[in-house]
TrEMBL record:
This is DUF3307 domain-containing protein. The keyword Membrane applies. It holds the Pfam family DUF3307. InterPro entries: Phage_phiKZ_Orf197 (IPR021737).
């Protein structure tokens, strides 16, 4: 596991800390002809060798550098086919992680992978999944009759409320699992502070009631999910 951690650290340093935005822009514009593409790969090789600190493992650094080059080059040319640029970014990162994983556990990759799968906490995975999108859909159905009576704020970011709800429920779930119930109160307080100006400016009782009901439903679903998880784990 320590080997994988070192390889991951080298990747994070090379891909994020030591890759300025202008390099990324230059690579996307010039593609294979970009000098920064090759400098980026060279930095990855150097960081990998530095963190491994073992000359005998140089060939792993070479494999990682070459695979990084091919993955990055594929991403650069595939970018134009994606309207949402986050998709090729995450595909790129997942492929890099797969390469690092294969390098770190090459001696028994199948056995290690099977072991990881067997150790998955399925009740926790189910709780996390339920607290995200399924809970959002349930809330939307429960509040459907009320939302029609609320004047929409078209200045809001698309789906911002949904994502805020998902994040807050995941926080609540984590706090319950850790036994930090007081942190849930802090989270409610923080959300109330951020919402105060909106409610004050709108001066709408319907909006206030709608937000309050939505918040209580969101926290309630998260708390219920956490309690069920603690009961079945």
């Amino acid at each position: 596991m320590m080997l994988f951690t070192k390889l991951l650290l080298a990747h994070l340093l090379g891909d994020f800390l030591f890759q300025p935005t202008k390099w990324v822009v230059h690579k996307e514009a010039n593609k294979m002809a970009s000098k920064y593409l090759y400098l980026h790969i060279l930095i990855h090789f150097g960081l990998t060798m530095l963190l491994l600190w073992d000359i005998k493992l140089w060939w792993w650094a070479v494999i990682i550098a070459l695979s990084h080059y091919m993955i990055d080059l594929s991403k650069i040319y595939a970018n134009s086919y994606f309207k949402n640029k986050t998709i090729p970014f995450f595909i790129d990162q997942v492929l890099h992680l797969i390469v690092l994983y294969c390098c770190a556990f090459n001696s028994d990759i199948i056995g290690h992978t099977v072991g990881l799968i067997q150790e998955i906490n399925w009740p926790l995975v189910t709780a996390v999944v339920f607290a995200s999108y399924p809970s959002s859909i349930i809330m939307a159905k429960l509040l459907e009759g009320m939302s029609d009576r609320i004047e929409l704020d078209h200045k809001s970011l698309p789906n911002a409320g949904k994502y805020i709800g998902i994040i807050e429920r995941l926080f609540v779930l984590i706090f319950i699992i850790l036994g930090r119930w007081e942190a849930i109160g802090l989270l409610i307080t923080a959300k109330s502070v951020f919402r105060f100006n909106d409610l004050k400016e709108s001066n709408s009782r319907k909006l206030t009631e709608y937000i309050l009901i939505g918040t209580l439903l969101s926290f309630g679903l998260a708390i219920l999910t956490g309690l069920i998880y603690l009961g079945v784990r």
